[in-house]
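so my prof wants the structure for this chain in the tokens format not the other one, which i didnt know existed until like an hour ago. anyway here's the sequence
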Amino acid sequence: MLRVQVILMILVGLLMSACQTSMLKQFSELKPGMEKDDVLNLMGSPNQTQRFHGKDRWKYVFYDQRIRFEKEIQFFEGSAVYIGDPWQPEASQTASAMDSLNEERNKVLDAQVEQDRATRRQIFQEETKPDTKVRYVPTFVPIQ
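here's what i got, hopefully its the right format
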């Protein structure tokens, strides 16, 4: 009797472990247009949530056969609009690309400002040059 119970327990354990599905397979079942509740029922709670540009972004990190997967779902007004790898901006729109572009623009603007200063300084100096002829010399009466 004890032997049958042990075999039965082992068999139940094997069957339960065989019922587990991989997160990757579950993620592949997601479709755009699914509601948040449907995604929660299928995938469980996300590892990270974020609100960005009016969209809710859920990130899932999981391992399948020792390979790390990072997947993202974006929701707009409660429905999934993007399902896949984490969204990355175009190379021309990354922060470092925008910083270098702004730095180049600032260099051009600084050069223009410096040129304008030099021009204005020269005009001011020409306008305020002392005349060689004396126009008015005040007379002073000593105080007694």
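also thought this was worth mentioning. The helical segments are 2-18, 23-28, 36-43, 95-127.
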